[in-house]
Design a protein that fits this description.
This protein has 252 residues and is α/β, with parallel strands linked by helices. It contains nine helices and eight strands.
């Protein structure tokens, strides 16, 4: 959107486009050191995921100007990008980003419509393990894994898949092995938040009793760079392309 030179710092995980890697980063994305943030003297702090709601509230109490949105569907993501364009006087560039996403998404949808059937896919956003260096600082401890929600089921359908039953727009939710077994996925996709493409699928495949799942037995467990599915922006196109590609591969 042409705003790169106006960004004084980002959170730990903001690394797109490539030029963003050169911008100073603050550790984490929810437990931000506000003293370090204040040192950059931002005029406004932009936050855009549900897990940053408490951070937004904290920053407001410390007199930061905060723009917080919580888009959960593709249409809400498009609206959020347009609203950023309006706020920062780059509406034309924002509309170009949205149009590019829409065109690319439609290309995937057209290809997916030619698949002989929809494969059943379970996409997991959070593992049922304690945080580790490979998962990043934002990975919490969970007794149960979490199936991907928000816009992810929508992206899966666009890619020609039948996603685990989380309604588009609903937050990711804890699931039991029994629920996943009842769904009987053809494929499991690991999209662990903060892990990038480094998630070890053995951590899922070797869970007690998860070996009974057909997808595990057939080796149909894929790891995707979570930034392609977990971040509300242009890289969702790459997520859709990956899911479509795996579905095509399984069906041909």
């Amino acid at each position: 959107m042409g705003m790169g030179n106006d960004i004084v710092c980002t959170d730990q995980f903001s690394n797109f486009p490539d030029d963003a890697r050169a911008i100073p980063h603050l550790r984490d994305m929810v437990n931000i050191d506000t003293s370090a943030l204040r040192g950059f003297q931002p005029d406004i702090v932009v936050l855009g995921t549900s897990i940053q709601k408490r951070l937004a509230e904290k920053l407001k109490t410390e007199d930061f100007a905060v723009l917080f949105e919580d888009p959960r569907t593709l249409q809400e993501i498009y609206a959020w990008i347009r609203s950023l364009g309006a706020v920062f006087d780059c509406g034309r560039q924002a509309e170009s980003v949205v149009l590019g996403m829409q065109q690319s998404i439609n290309e995937v949808k057209k290809k997916a419509a030619l698949l002989p059937r929809r494969i059943r896919v379970y996409i997991e956003e959070w593992p049922a393990i304690a945080p580790s260096a490979s998962l990043g600082a934002t990975a919490g401890t969970h007794d149960l894994p979490y199936a991907s929600g928000n816009w992810v089921p929508e992206i899966a359908r666009i890619a020609g898949c039948h996603p685990f039953p989380v309604n588009a727009g609903d937050l990711s939710s804890a699931v039991t092995l029994e629920q996943v077994a009842a769904f009987d996925p053809d494929m499991i996709v690991i999209s662990w938040c903060g892990a990038g493409s480094l998630a070890d699928k053995a951590l899922l495949m070797e869970r007690p009793e998860w070996g009974q799942l057909r997808a595990v037995q057939s080796g149909a467990v894929r790891v995707i760079d979570d930034s392609f599915l977990n971040r509300p922006g242009p890289r969702l196109v790459e997520g859709a392309r990956h899911l479509y590609g795996w579905a095509f591969e399984m069906l041909h």
